[in-house]
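Regression test attached.
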Amino acid sequence: DAGVIQSPRHEVTEMGQEVTLRCKPISGHNSLFWYRQTMMRGLELLIYFNNNVPIDDSGMPEDRFSAKMPNASFSTLKIQPSEPRDSAVYFCASSWTGAKNTGELFFGEGSRLTVL
Amino acid sequence: EDKVVQSPLSLVVHEGDTVTLNCSYEVTNFRSLLWYKQEKKAPTFLFMLTSSGIEKKSGRLSSILDKKELFSILNITATQTGDSAVYLCAPLNKGAGNMLTFGGGTRLMVKP
């Protein structure tokens, strides 16, 4: 199993630019999560999809952030326009919430974003 | 709003020491509590605890849950330098899918 795949691994951009982060969940998983991690705030949940539908986006910081899941094997997190305070590691995680659900999330390696 | 507090924030020990990490939580409709280990990259799963008083073990790591007092502990015996990491706990609510709210973590450093 390839695990959760995220791209890019590192992104350095300038303030005001658009940033798109990508995620391919584990095949067969029906839930997908975007988290953001910083030293100050720890690991924060941004948005949660179940069966490609956004269920909880209360963690999305503001309108500059948007996330989509057009199909079961792909999701994007977009920041437009980006700001220096968006600098963080963004993790995507997937999970199975059907029968015999263990509750475990499987994380990708993360995308480290630096906004100058 | 769910609350998760981990203590201590950080800990420095020497190889061979035993450590106890704490996690207290307040959630509206508790289902289970998960522990993760995060080294330099992604968090990796350690344990899921659902019932009080039943210890889960994996090698030198063990964990137990107290649903009455709303806390869990993670013990690591005979620590090794490879145990150096951030340890995260996350309670899981019923009916919330697998949406985890993570604590701030305990940063453990094990010196040779």
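Expected vs. actual: identical. Chain B touches chain A at residues 31-32, 34, 41-45, 48, 88, 92, 97-105 (CB under 8 Å).
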